[in-house]
Amino acid sequence: MATGIAPEPAQARTPSEIYGPVFARYKTITDARKKLRNDEKKGRLTSGDDYYAMAYACQYEEPASQSMILTALSRSRCKDKSAEYFAEAGNRGVPEGFLAAANFIGQGDQAYIYAQMAFQLSGQDSALRGEALDAIARLRSTVGDVATLDQRAIQQATVLASNGAYSGLRNAATTVDVQNRLPNLAWLNFKNPKRCHYSDAWAKVVQGAYKVDDRNYVAVPATTTVPGSNQRVTGRIVRPEKDWQSVVRVEADVKGQWNGLTVLGIFTTFVEESHGVWGDGIRFAEPVEVVAQRLAAAGFVVNRDGSERRQIDKIDRYPYKDEKGRQQVAENIDGVITSIERKNGATYFYCDEIFEASYGA
């Protein structure tokens, strides 16, 4: 974890709070744009706030006047450079610049990377962190390989946090510092987050972390290999229900980073006599609210406070007649159930499909 100077809790600056003091030095926004761009071309522009103001000014045009000449002179010729200038503001210590760049671009890989960098460099600014998470969630559907983009954003943010304009901040989330040392567990990527469809690699690890003793049909630890490495992990057998010792949770302590979170392990829970699934999931280091925010941004169906969430995706109804000849309706309910809870110094994320059948009127 980062140990540098922690900033005082803050709230995200509004755009006007950033560009306002800059524009106050000039006659008009058009005047500011012209002179700021001139300073930038001559290498005299150094402030992140100045770059942010210039990016904003490049999007601005004075209202049309009766004079065609004045209207033409007021037109911006640098709109297409706004994202570049916003990002440069981010590079120079104004994380709001990365968020503005993401919003200006609107979609695609680069917009997603900028939004992730705004989050990573938000420090203790809870408002900016929330805005960045919203942008990440919105942009996720416009990109392909999220894990790779997350890693790129984290690497770029790490450089800035280590020796750039953010070196005194050492962001409060400490995600950059921790994740720079931990392996990327891309093999955890779900086939379908909304449906709790785990990856084949996840299933292989948890299934390889235990075996059933043929002599007494009791689950015992086993050793398996972590995907993409030579690391070996031995499962831990936990019996979480004191009054029902047949409930078994197998935990594989695989450590790494995934979806911007610090993974401490993965687990599967079942009833020993039947092997009926009880609860599958991942164990994280971050608190419930952080885990919930990031999982929601990744497309999982979760409540922000971690409370149990049941989502019904499909209900099939079938009419039938019971043994007395009465018309009845059977229902097959198809959905997911999720929850996030903090216990024993870790945050457990449960994600399971549910299939329920009911019979009756």
Walk me through this protein's architecture.
It is a single chain. With 361 residues, the chain is an alpha+beta fold. It has 2 domains: 15-179, no CATH class; 186-360, no CATH class. 36% of the residues lie in helices and 25% in strands. The chain contains 12 helices and 12 strands. It has helices at residues 15-23, 29-41, 48-58, 68-74, 82-91, 95-105, 109-120, 126-139, 146-163, 175-179, 200-208, 288-297; strands at 210-213, 218-221, 223-225, 232-234, 236-238, 247-252, 256-258, 261-271, 277-284, 309-321, 327-343, 346-360. Strands 5, 6, 7, 8, 9, 10, 11 and 12 form an 8-stranded antiparallel β-sheet that branches. Strands 1-2 form a two-stranded antiparallel sheet. The longest helix is centred in the middle third of the chain and has 18 residues, at 146-163.
